[in-house]
Amino acid sequence: MTYKGAPKLTKTSTFQVRIGHDYEAQASTKAARADGMKHRPAEDDWAVRLNEHLSFNKQSGRVYLSCQPIDTAVRTAHYTDEQFQVHTKEAIAHYLLASEARTSETALHLRVPIDTIVGLI
Fold it and tell me: How many CB atoms are closer than 10 A to CB 90?
């Protein structure tokens, strides 16, 4: 959340993922590219691939773990402010960026900043 005057909020999400998959090798990605439906490049301009699992963001200096949600549903558990008060998404919607405010939380591929991962089981 980058809007001036917006409170510092932490988003906590829970999801199961498959780590180490090859997005480009997926049948759905190949079929979509063949049909001209996938506009996402094989590698983003901002990213440098460190290995098959990690990407480095040239602009922010952060390292991202590539993963694929198992059931494609990413559930936001809650948003917490600096005083550890929990807020609903609806209550803070006016502070959210457009990408955060989407109602659908379905993703076929994720890049998660490794410095934000609290635990892996």
Answer: 7
Give ∠ CA 86-113-93 in degrees, rounded to 5. Answer: 35
For the CA atoms of 8, 120, 47, 75, the dihedral, rounded to the nearest 10 degrees, stands at: -60
Q: Write down the pTM of the prediction.
A: 0.58
Q: Show pLDDT as tens, one digit a residue, over the chain (121 residues).
A: 456 777 888 888 777 888 876 777 778 778 887 888 765 555 677 888 888 788 899 988 999 888 877 776 666 667 888 898 998 888 888 888 776 766 555 566 677 888 877 666 5
**CB within 8 Å of 121: residues ≥ 6 apart:** none
